[in-house]
Amino acid sequence: MKWYDDLYVGESIVHKTNKIKWKIRHNAGQINIYVITLASGEKNLLDIIPSHELLQKGYPKKQLYVIGLAKGYDEAVEVAASVIDEVYRQTGAFEVASYLREKRRRKAE
């Protein structure tokens, strides 16, 4: 699992981000926490995954690129929508992955 450097985080957990990331990395169960990742399929823009699903042994975590965290499904939808809105406002398109790569590259310069 890889983590986006400039993680998008819901307002209700912004002060707990590092603790939540640590728990996810160390397979500690968390209730009502959702991770927002780049889409696993071509037809989606982003995936919203309950963090408890990541505890399953067979879950393909290595391929995940986490770009956001939220508490509760509704907040996860809000965070995902704000990411997509930002991408569209900046580029006029819905190429989330390429936008985030470019944003990371510009920040590194």
Query: What number of domains?
Result: 1
Helical fraction equals 25-40%
Uncertain runs: none
User: What amount of the residues lies in strands?
Assistant: 15-25%
Mean pLDDT: 92
What would you note in describing this structure?
The chain has helices at residues 17-25, 73-91, 96-108, and strands at residues 2-9, 33-38, 46-50, 65-71. With 109 residues, the protein is of the alpha+beta class. The protein has one domain (2-108). The chain has a 4-stranded mixed β-sheet. The two termini are 25 Å apart.
Can you give me a brief rundown of this structure?
The protein has 109 residues and is of the alpha+beta class. It is built from 3 helices and 4 strands. Strands 1-4-2-3 form a 4-stranded mixed sheet.
